[in-house]
Please model this.
Amino acid sequence: DIQMTQSPLSLSASVGDRVSITCRASQSISSYLNWYQQKPGKAPKLLIYGASSLQTGVPSRFSGSGSGTDFTLTISSLQPEDFATYYCQQSYTTPRTFGQGTKVDIK
Amino acid sequence: EVQLVESGGDLVQPGGSLRLSCAASGFTLSSYWMHWVRQVAGKGLVWVSRINNDGNTTNYADSVKGRFTISRDNAKNTLYLQMNSLRVEDTAVYYCATEDGRAFQHWGQGTLVTVSS
Model:
């Protein structure tokens, strides 16, 4: 199985900050990397697919980059509604696997 | 509006069975692979199972293989997860999700399964 490792597992930031979360795959997954946002008590929401493609309706302050084994989710200017947990996930092979999640909270 | 609604979650004793359902509306279920993903309270997302468009190919996480069965009824626009020989460690919120081969675009709201004596 492909292991997905996120860092950091938590971070504190202020509104307006630029935030980056990294995700590393245990083997190359090309660009088959997706990012999700989850708020407490809610289902996950797709933000980025194919490493860098923005899902319809997602604000442009979210962006993704990377290929192979190393990927990054960046929020250019953190907004109050962005405080949540973020997960990466590979869709290169089955079983689909997720990172541990990165909790972004208010500093 | 695209919607997935899970049901069937309940409190069940270890060794018991449950069948979860995921009803789709606003789109044609047969257009997508379908997945079940679970989440223990306060923990991360864990993939459980996948079924292809016509139901002929299924995959399972090792932790549920031989105990859980995924199926679909495209005519009813509904996905199922039959869960047998349930264990305490199966306690979680179970989500269904669509996939077009790239990512999980649509998710249900989740249904809670609690396995406890």
About this structure: The radius of gyration of chain A is 13 Å. Chain A touches chain B through 23 residues (CB under 8 Å). The mean pLDDT of chain A is 97. The CA atoms of residues 57 and 80 of chain A lie 17 Å apart.
